[in-house]
């Protein structure tokens, strides 16, 4: 007989504490679940190469990871039917609703809980790796449109690489006007954070110059900021990389000029005490100092930076997240992301290339604390400019490359086979905290490179 596991996570007013009741055919449970006000049925499936929930009935029928909308205070019942035969469960952590695990096609489990507060919350499969593989959706309780409307999109477009290579041009005098801001930005669906930024984006703009250029930096701190900000360029030879002369109060502007003496890809960041706090909040970026003659031509270039957020709320919480000094000092981030937000390189922006293209990724770690083991699942780096040294011979045929906080690298590879390739830090537990990106490769499959008789989706990841 098929097993039905019922988990109750209900309010005190109902007289139930959060607990689980397992009910088998012929063995009635000793407690009875409250009558549900709202019911949903989901099915587990593999779709587009991902593990997902699919709506089984009603208005959500056929939808992948559908939004489940319920009024505040109502008792909610979610039934999960196993449609792919693998081991799964379902949980809504915010309401302590957690099912037993189910395996085998057609088996089912149900959670019942009261939605005691409004907001946007996650429902997930809690098995290791399943959330990162796609088993996550939104439970929307009450009317949350107003609370989310103030958050702006701070994610940096990975295709914005500051224009084309400098080529054979002579040294120029270049001026950059940068603005520091403090804005509530989108962290993920249903959650936000008060970021500190350069030019309203995380990371800040990709700056592209050549060795020998003279650069003037005008740094303005927006009038509505409440903190002093500054900028430290690792490409600058001079006091604090510029930070010593750019401690800028709200509404003020400070400037300095430097000559680019060394080629490479360099991090810049705010260097106002507490420096780690300013960096974590989003104040970092990259400046490329190309060697004389510029970089060799490639088909596609991308700008990607890894960062950390330290919040009082656990990863997956909804609403405005608050900074936690204790977690920063303990170096225990709740969120890790590429280009500022959980969704930047998976939903907000689409990194694309065609079979046969050569791809170059300028990759940096804002940090402030964790080293990255940068890896693209299903690809091998043809060339790695280790630690972003553009004058050293590149490493060849590299699987994973280390990048320290405040450091960078350049990787290049030819894409030979279509599919969805996943950018990760190979400290793979960090996938569970949001650290993933997709490179979509379009074109014809070459069976000499990869072939299988197994049913598969060429756009799948892993």
Describe the 3D structure.
The chain is mostly beta strands and 462 residues long. It folds into 3 domains: 4-147, Cupredoxins -  blue copper proteins (Immunoglobulin-like, Sandwich); 173-290, Cupredoxins -  blue copper proteins (Immunoglobulin-like); 300-442, Immunoglobulin-like, CATH 2.60.40.420. It contains 4 helices and 31 strands. A 6-stranded mixed beta sheet has the order 2-1-9-6-3-4, with no helix packed on it. The protein has a 6-stranded mixed beta sheet with strand order 22-20-24-29-26-27. The longest helix is centred in the middle third of the chain and has 6 residues, at 275-280. The radius of gyration is 25 Å and the shape is globular.
Uncertain runs are 1-33
For CATH, the homologous superfamily of the largest domain is named as Cupredoxins -  blue copper proteins
Give the tally of β-strands.
31
Contiguous helical run count: 4
What radius of gyration results from the CA coordinates?
25 Å
Query: Quick check: average pLDDT?
Result: 89
Helix content: under 10%
CATH-level-2 architecture of the largest domain:
Sandwich
Q: What amount of the residues lies in strands?
A: 35-45%
The CATH class designation of the largest domain is Mainly Beta
User: Could you say which overall geometry the principal axes of the C-alpha atoms support?
Assistant: globular
Overall number of structural domains? 3
Strand order, main sheet: write it out: 2-1-9-6-3-4
Q: Alpha-carbon distance between the termini? A: 34 Å
Estimated structural class: mainly beta
| CATH topology-level name of the largest domain | Immunoglobulin-like
| Largest sheet: number of strands, sense, barrel closure | 6 strands, mixed
Organism: Novilysobacter selenitireducens
Catalytic activity: nitric oxide + Fe(III)-[cytochrome c] + H2O = Fe(II)-[cytochrome c] + nitrite + 2 H(+)
EC number: 1.7.2.1
Pfam family, one: Cu-oxidase_3
